[in-house]
Specification:
The chain is α+β, with helices and mostly antiparallel strands and about 190 residues long. The protein is built from 3 helices and 11 strands. Strands 4-1-5-6-9 form a 5-stranded mixed β-sheet, with helices on one face. It has a two-stranded antiparallel ribbon with strand order 2-3. The chain has a two-stranded antiparallel ribbon with strand order 7-8.
Length: about 190
């Protein structure tokens, strides 16, 4: 595919959409990505981006869900390889199979993702595996791992409602995971 992974992030402005690019995104950890995205978005809104910061993207993420839509079908901006669309993330009914094999309805936080890609560059099976891997990763992400606040470039670990008040093994697991998530400690990591 492409040698460099330069992540385009769609930012909605009053007058339209702009896609600043976070270069070498594959070299950054979760907190580094959050800080880079927050910086680009803030400078886009303040009209302080340089021309070279809105070109050279290889993969874009857009979030039509921020406006409440279930999903959107974005189109790639050539010569980019693909674009991932993130729909609204909200509580929805979900069928859950109980240990005894019966099905029941439960409330779950759900979101829909779409992806458009250039078949001349990307094999469709690889793209489908990417979405399947993304789904599996998000579904297995522990509730105690913390909350990523992209707007402020923070990884808030302890204040998460599920993590708040953890004792013993739960707290140890939280503290063990925090450095891997880029926080470096179990308190909020401020940008």
């Amino acid at each position: 595919y492409k040698k460099d992974i330069n992540l385009g992030i769609a930012v909605a402005l009053d007058w339209g959409l702009i896609v600043p690019v976070l270069e070498h995104a594959d070299e950054k950890n979760l907190l580094g990505l959050a800080r880079g995205i927050a910086d680009l978005a803030n400078r886009a809104r303040a009209k302080q981006l340089k021309p070279d910061e809105v070109s050279g993207g290889t993969f874009t993420i857009t979030n039509p869900g921020v406006f409440g839509t279930l999903f959107g079908m974005p189109i790639i901006n050539q010569p980019q390889v693909a674009i991932l669309g993130i729909g609204s993330i909200e509580k929805r009914p979900h069928v859950v199979t109980l240990p005894d094999g019966t099905d029941t309805l439960a409330i779950r936080t759900k979101g829909m993702f779409t992806m458009a890609y250039d078949h001349r560059i990307v094999d469709g099976a690889d793209a489908d595996r990417f979405l399947a891997d993304l789904k599996a990763m998000l579904q297995s992400f522990p509730d105690t791992a913390g909350v990523l606040d992209i707007e402020r470039g923070q990884l808030a670990v302890e204040p998460h409602p599920v993590a708040h008040g953890l004792r013993g093994e739960g707290r140890a697991e939280l503290e063990r995971r925090a450095p891997a998530l880029g926080a470096g400690h179990a308190r909020a990591a401020q940008a």
